[in-house]
Amino acid sequence: MKLLLVFKKGSTLRWISHLDLIKVFEKALRRAELPIALSQGFNPRPKMSIALPLPVGTTSSGEYMELELEESMDPIVVKNKLNQQLPEGLQMMQVQVLPERGPAIMSVVDSSVYEIKVPLSEEETAHMGSVITTLQQKSEILVDYLNKEGRKKSMDIKPGIRTISWQMDINKIEIHVETSSRLFVRPNYVLQAIAAEMQREEWKIDEMDIHRVRIVLHI
Amino acid sequence: MQEQHHILQDSKLANVHKPTRYIGNEINQIVKDPHQTEVRMAFAFPDVYDIGMSHLGSKILYHVVNRLEWASMERVYAPWPDYEALLRREEAVLTTLENKTPLCDFPLLGFTLQYELTYSNLVNILDLGRITLYAKDRLETEPIIIAGGPGAFNPEPVADFLDLVVLGDGEEILPQLLHLYRDLQKKYHKRPPRKEFLMRAAEFDGVYVPAFYMPMYDENHIFQGIEKLVENAPLPVRRAIVKDLNQAEYPDALLLPYGEVIHDRAMIELFRGCTAGCRFCQAGCIYRPVRERSLETLLNQAKILIQSTGYDEISLISLSSMDYSQIESLVDTLLHDYGCQGVGVALPSLRVDSFSVDIAEKVQQVRKSGLTLAPEAGSQRLRNIINKRVSEPQIMEAVSGAFDAGWSSLKLYFMLGLPGETDADLAEIVRLAERIAGVYRQKKRQGRLRISISVSTFVPKPHTPFQWLGQISPEEIRRRQQYLRSLIRDRAIELSTHDVNTSDLEALFSRGDRRLSAVIRRAHELGARFDGWTEHFRFDLWKRAVEECDVDHRYYANHTKEITEVLPWEHLDSGIRKEWLIEQWDLALKELETDDCRFGPCSLCGVCMDYGVQNLLDKESNR
User: Fold this and answer.
1) What is the ipTM score, two decimals?
2) What is the spatial distance between Cα B416 and Cα B19, in angstroms, rounded to a whole number?
């Protein structure tokens, strides 16, 4: 039986890496004594996968985990048993049954929605709406990034931006960006473009409060 | 009114390399409400989280204290330099992981002394925790600083920083100290006077209060003995011993670390103490006698731990696990009960014999790893001197068995600078490795052979038969290392040696006295941190601190003391009698072995007579 679980990762747990998260889940599954299907081979691992790694420091309320059980169980029981074994800040929110022969969860990630908060001066707050409108109207948004070899590269993120909006009442930027294997727009790329448009220096790494609201799948 | 200290904002962790070292919130963490807890203690491990979270002793104490309803223990580890820089930049105080409480706000703060080169970290933790460094300068509102662990058997180099030192088994003495603190707190309705607490604590076996004793020196600055400053202070100070580990507390859950830590697996402690009698080994002297847990106790603990942690590996901890009287039954049962669940068994140390290799082979059915053996010395003569009772035929039989079982990668541990060592003995190390390579090639097996020889430098340790000896000089260490390297011809043999300056500093502290506290304080001030880590070790800072404090490094590290000399740690009783140590030294000179008293006659080390204890084996030996 295959299950899809939605979980949130918040508070101090945002500092644990993707690899750590997998370790936490593997041990939690063991402690929960659920009939998890194991992979074949010399070093069997639980058949469990996470849709999209969450960068260290980012919180989320909509991560996906796919889980395979050896026998059928009430999905709600699975969710509750697992929740009893998770540290504070990590929680399974929803669960549903997946078809046995569906595509792997990782292969169907389309895009992500983020809420971002950064420190802004009064003037910057007042201008944010128009800055974002300007960005939306551009035909190309070039940002710098470091590739795997550590070399500086430039890319156009415009095709990957689905929506971008300024939530005036809560002083947050909401973005919906493509996060697929075809095009991956990181939220800090968008922040870089905003800073450039505002002609201010980029926000420091400890000033960015980034929250993934949900992942959009194309099933 | 207590000062309010700034606590680092969580978001600032984005600036450090491994933030999970500082967040706490691990599975099986115990967080108690500070306002509902009568006695709060912080426990500091003076090395990085990755090391501290691998340490079994800390986990035992965490459990022992937190199971007391009215007491709590919270953890803190040495901040890695990037995190320290962040704390200093933000003017934030070092806190515990559990409640983010500044260290200075705890009534009690304990350290474990596992390794000499963590001493600068100890000072740094006090400093970042906003605690006055020297015990004599501390205010009544500041924590009482406690230290335990193997380093407590010569705590003199750090004595000026400590209020109280715990000798021996912590699970025995720590609850007694907390009970005492609680009683006095009830009497005073607030933090009790430090002096009164220390006076009463000193009545327990295993408690040493450095301020109650004054070291004496002659006009040539030679240590002349210790003088009591308080009439009721015990002299010598006795050690705390758990007589029967089956009755002792053991964690029913282990903290699950985040990030990559050194040992990330469930651990059961098979026994404490070791009577193999290796003459260089401090652990073999200060933890006597052997106290085994029963097979039943261990299997039960293993079951509980696997359930409460979800670990897929269980490590069998002790000073020499192959000597556990029920090792075969234990390994067989664990493999039988948990193998099908994918839970493996890890053996941290093997004895150099075919029996051990057979057991290691069984364990491999679940997990594959390298094989490590420790002959310690290359020649039979030198092995006799150090009482490492293993013969060359035994070594050959063991490696032959290992090759037959499919291993092609071996790690061999040796020491350099052992007493009586000549170049011929060193050459024997290489010859032994070559003979082992020969055994492998005769078997004409597939797969590339790799023999890694790891040669550490011998550091004489207090309370051992070699405690009087100086370490060979740094120049001589270098020469012998080069000599060894020059002998390596075989491409399958790989040699690694220890850093000379590191060994030199270890030797300074190992047999140090109280005058070294000033050196440690000064080195810390100059910036010394994580001295056991190559990337952070700054020997130049230590050299400068030693010079400025007018300390003769060579005297401490390399001077061989007379048997008649008073030793700076002699007022601390490990349970071993001095006559036995002298006798062992004589036997070493004569190149004669001494039996393990588990299997042979009692060698009269004294601990059983003087402490009313005995070797406690689960099963009569048939060796």
Assistant:
1) 0.92
2) 39
